[in-house]
Structure formats: C-alpha cells, structure tokens
Amino acid sequence: MKLIVESASELFLGDGFATTSLEAVAAPSGVSHRAVYSTFVGVGALGSAVVGPRSRPDVAASIIGIPMRSDGMS
Questions:
Q1: Which residues contact 62 (CB under 8 A, 6 or more apart)?
Q2: Residue 56 has pLDDT above 70, yes or no
Q3: What's the pLDDT score for residue 31?
Q4: Backbone phi and psi for residue 63, each to the nearest 5 degrees, phi listed first
C-alpha cells in the first residue's frame, strides 16, 4: 500500500488529481491495476490516503487541486 500511495502522491502533484486514474498509479507502484482497485474504492479514497497523513491544509489542497482562500482555508 505504501508504494501505491507514494506513486499516487507523485502523480497527483505532477499530473493533477483530476487527471490521475487508478490505472495510472498501478504501473509506477509495481502492482496491477486490480491490486490498486482492491485496496482503494476509487481515486477519492486514494486521495484521502495521500493527504490524510499531512497536517497542513495547504499541502493537502495543492495535491488535490483545491483553491485556497487567503486565510489558508479551502
């Protein structure tokens, strides 16, 4: 699971959350797309796994592409 989350994090930052599919995450993770689907219900669940451990809202927002308000809230 760690490799999947790391690969997803890189793809979300590089390609954007909206354009990253679970299939795209599988190859650099070294697992089949079925393994990714059996671990995560969808890209939203994978996004939660990526941003969940991070405590800074600006980091989480930048990964999944949520615009931040000037007060740091999304």
A1: 13, 68
A2: no
A3: 92
A4: -70, -45
Is the model's pLDDT at 54 over the cut of 80?
no
The tokens of 74 are what? 């999304």
Cα–Cα distance measured from residue 69 to residue 3, given in angstroms and rounded to the nearest whole number:
32
Residue 67, SS3 per DSSP: coil
Residue 59: in which H helix or E strand, if any? helix 57-64
Mean pLDDT of the chain: 77
CA 60 to chain centre: 9
Which own/partner pairs from 37-45 qualify as long-range (CB within 8 Å, at least 24 positions apart)? 39/1, 39/4, 40/4, 43/17
